[in-house]
Backbone:
């Protein structure tokens, strides 16, 4: 019996894996949909799979709408445009990411491990993130100046504070790196993988991540950024490379701003 | 060519037998089709019952494809609306924001149209992305000025309803395709 279950490989036939019929124990090829002996279906759980997909989409929509409302209120209502409120909204965004991530803990827990840690890979990704951030930062400043004729600074928001620079780094680099990764590459991407193929899940997660930033120019660099981070996350099956890429990218933005400030 | 030669030289070879329901290859030893479960040795009544069940599933699949296409078309309608409304708003605004307003709407229209074309090849991801962007625009407008949620409310409800049906149909189509053994 054991010999029968070995894969049969030959020049004409691609690799075939054998299995037993769920009903009559007739030996079957694994891709077969119905038993040729008793006719019972070997496709298990198509109905459960469809329900699971619909549930996953509902959860994705709820997560997305919560994030969208929080981001929209924080960015577009002048009343909330203060340091204290920005901290409150950052905490709420972080909380929603944590709640959604841990709600599907059994599905997501493997993402927090870092089994195939590779230092060269990590360093290469960090260098790519830093260089990419510098190039994009330059282009974005130029575009903002030319098209929208306005200047934007992350630091300006925290400048009046005693520890302005530290706060800038914490709220611009540390918080997003941890909680946007947890929310978008953790919860969201993992749910999408239940619904669509890998490639499409990567594209959707990057698209949702990009539009969530509510800025037009940013869309065209956050989208490729999201694709890279989501691709690494799917390929390596860990959140940590993404956390470091995200942190390096945003930290470089902060440092470039501090550098410019000191040299003007 | 070699394969055909070797097949022809086999004396016991019969012309390939096809399943009467799904037209996939079957062997004579099979009592049921491996691909669709058609009872090859069943009674006339059993076979007719199977075919009628299969036909009703095929009709469901056809219906699902139509719903999916409708949801894809919504993406084109939204692209058109965005372009027209964006142009009107840009032409009538006087606060020096007209160029950035126009660019914003043109970019949005291009994204929606792009998603519309993508929905022809990959309906589910395109509809999910389009729905998310549409929902985000409604939320943004509602946050900036809450009464905008009422403008064109009927269109909003219809569009969102069709998106939801598109997503449900895409999931159902996938399930039906698996059950029918078609690609």
Residues:
């Amino acid at each position: 019996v054991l010999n029968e279950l070995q894969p049969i490989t030959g020049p004409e036939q691609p690799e075939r894996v054998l299995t037993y019929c769920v009903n009559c124990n007739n030996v079957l090829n694994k891709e077969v949909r119905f038993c040729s002996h008793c006719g019972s279906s070997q496709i298990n759980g198509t109905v459960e799979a469809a329900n699971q997909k619909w549930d996953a989409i509902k959860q994705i929509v709820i997560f997305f709408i919560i994030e969208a409302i929080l981001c929209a209120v924080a960015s577009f209502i002048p009343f909330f445009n203060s340091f204290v409120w920005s901290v409150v909204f950052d905490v709420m965004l972080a909380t929603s990411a944590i709640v959604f991530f841990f709600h599907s803990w059994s599905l997501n827990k493997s993402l927090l491990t870092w089994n195939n840690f590779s230092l060269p890979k990590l360093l290469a990704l960090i260098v790519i993130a830093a260089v990419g951030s510098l190039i994009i930062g330059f282009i974005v400043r130029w575009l903002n100046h030319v098209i929208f004729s306005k200047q934007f600074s992350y630091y300006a928001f925290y400048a009046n504070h005693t520890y302005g620079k530290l706060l800038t780094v914490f709220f611009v680099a540390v918080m997003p790196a941890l909680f946007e990764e947890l929310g978008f590459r953790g919860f969201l991407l993992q749910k999408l993988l239940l619904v669509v193929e890998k490639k499409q899940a990567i594209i959707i997660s990057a698209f949702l991540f990009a539009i969530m930033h509510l800025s037009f120019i940013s869309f065209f660099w956050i989208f490729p950024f999201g694709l890279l981070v989501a691709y690494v996350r799917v390929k390596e099956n860990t959140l940590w490379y993404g956390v470091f890429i995200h942190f390096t990218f945003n930290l470089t933005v902060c440092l470039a701003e501090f550098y410019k400030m000191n040299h003007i | 060519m070699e394969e055909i030669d070797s097949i022809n030289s086999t004396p016991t070879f019969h012309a390939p037998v096809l399943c009467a329901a799904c037209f996939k290859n079957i062997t004579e030893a099979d009592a049921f089709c491996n691909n669709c479960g058609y009872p090859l040795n069943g009674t006339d009544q059993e076979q007719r019952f199977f075919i009628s069940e299969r036909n009703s599933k095929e009709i469901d699949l056809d219906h699902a494809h139509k719903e999916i296409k409708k949801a894809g078309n919504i993406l084109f309608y939204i692209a058109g609306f965005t372009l027209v409304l964006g142009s009107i708003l840009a032409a009538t605004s006087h606060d020096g924001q007209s160029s950035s307003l126009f660019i914003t709407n043109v970019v949005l229209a291009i994204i929606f149209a792009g998603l519309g074309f993508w929905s022809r090849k990959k309906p589910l991801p395109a509809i999910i992305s389009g729905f998310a962007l549409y929902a985000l625009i409604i939320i943004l407008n509602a946050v900036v000025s809450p009464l905008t949620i009422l403008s064109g409310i009927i269109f909003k409800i219809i569009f969102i309803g069709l998106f939801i049906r598109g997503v449900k149909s895409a999931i159902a189509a996938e399930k039906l395709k698996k059950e029918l053994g078609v690609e």
Q: What stands out?
A: The longest strand of chain B covers residues 17-18.
